[in-house]
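Aggregate trends can hide what the representation actually does to any particular protein. This step matters because it turns folding into a mapping between discrete strings. For completeness, the protein is quoted in full, as a sequence line and a line of structure tokens:
=====
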Amino acid sequence: MGRVIAVTNQKGGVGKTTTAINLAASFASHRAPTLLVDCDPQSNASSGLGFLRDPDRPNTYKVLMGELTAADALHPTALDLLTIIPAHKNLLGANIELVPLDAREYRLRQALEPIRDRFQFIVLDCPPALDLLTLNALVAADTVLIPMQAEYFALEGVTELLDTIDRIRVELNPALAVEGVVLTMFDERTNLAQSVAAELRSFFGDLMCETAIPRNIRLAEAPSHGKPAIIYDPHSRGAEAYLKLAEELIDRVTNPKPQETAPEASNS
């Protein structure tokens, strides 16, 4: 069955959606059938793959509310092995509408279960908040990938996320693990970035991905053209970095090491 990876960080502006789009595209480029599920009401992952807002199109909101099955909401993309379930602005209301429903935290998990064996990877792009949408994604996920910038406030948002992951393990999803922590918008030329990166690697240990995503103008331009970087400019440093990150994560799946434990949130 497909490995479900939630890409999340409650701190905004860390390259979360850029990572979700380009990691999913890179998995597909490595011949791994991949599904990207846009769980963010802003729908940036959807528009970043060329899906402009369309209220009538099958979407994540309709899947969560039980109006459609996940299979009925699948859309092909420009990459042969990449499929998407796009988002819709109505997801904003889902945080309220889901509250009185039975098993509200399991809605996405239950929806994805029938189609998991069709994909090698399922990437969930989460909102930049620890709300009911993110909770659904974390309950549906096997692992969590955390994008972070190499800055001194980087750990602030992550400590609360790590605490949330611990609580979800206890109450809702015992198998949830941290896939890894990936540095984004990384400028290796600065002493500050190098210093913070070393501190983060010391804190997270082997959970820190070896691949760092550089600050790259082509990565920033690609979403406005509705394309992942690997299509927009496959030779850009950003596209090559996400291909390398995908290779690293595929290797972690095919050659697993002993399970690492995320640091305690209080250690920060």
Observations:
- Residues 154-171 form the longest helix (18 residues).
- The radius of gyration is 17 Å.
